[in-house]
Write a structure and sequence with these properties.
single chain, alpha/beta, five-stranded parallel beta sheet, 6 helices, globular
């Protein structure tokens, strides 16, 4: 299974990005993980600019989504909502259909970020993504990680991330049979 990992944060020391980068380093049987690093390069969404050919960054985002069997997000919450950069990335694929029936999981580095998780869940559901209930989790970080290595040294965090990735894999396999 090809799993696309996406952080909703552009911050260098982001806990959510640390989760995503740690997930990319975990060995989960039959899962190939790729981190998408380009949401900050996407232009501001404007339907008038969504033509053929698409902007190179938009095309790269769409291609990454198309080649993924499932997508795993981890995002912070800003002012009870999604970071603008992540919402912008999603806006670029509302009409092009990359999330149509795509299995999706959500990680969260803070149990207090309930609004962002709910907003992301709602947006992806409207886009017809298949939200995988067993692949939605808060990761109990022992401390604020300085990076993926710190996350990988936190066994309860590793267990949750591995469980989420395994649930996505199981869902994709079950869907194919």
């Amino acid at each position: 299974m090809n799993l696309l990992l996406v952080s909703g944060s552009l911050r260098g020391a982001s806990s959510n990005s640390a989760l995503i980068r740690a997930a990319a380093q975990l060995s989960v049987p039959d899962v190939v993980s790729v981190v998408f690093e380009g949401i900050g390069a996407l232009p501001h969404f404007n339907p008038d600019l969504d033509g053929d050919p698409a902007d190179v960054h938009v095309q790269r985002w769409r291609d990454a989504l198309r080649s993924a069997d499932a997508v795993l997000f981890s995002t912070p919450e800003y002012a009870h909502g999604l970071p603008g950069t992540l919402k912008n990335a999603l806006d670029w694929v509302v009409g092009s259909g990359e999330f149509l029936y795509k299995p999706v999981g959500l990680l969260n580095a803070s149990a207090a970020s309930t609004y962002a998780q709910a907003s992301l869940h709602e947006t992806l559901s409207v886009m017809m993504a298949e939200m995988v209930p067993d692949a939605i989790a808060v990761v109990p970080l022992a401390t604020r990680p300085a990076g993926p290595r710190a996350v990988l040294q936190d066994q309860p965090a590793v267990d949750v991330i591995t469980s989420v990735m395994t649930a996505l894999h199981r869902y994709v396999v079950d869907k194919q049979t």
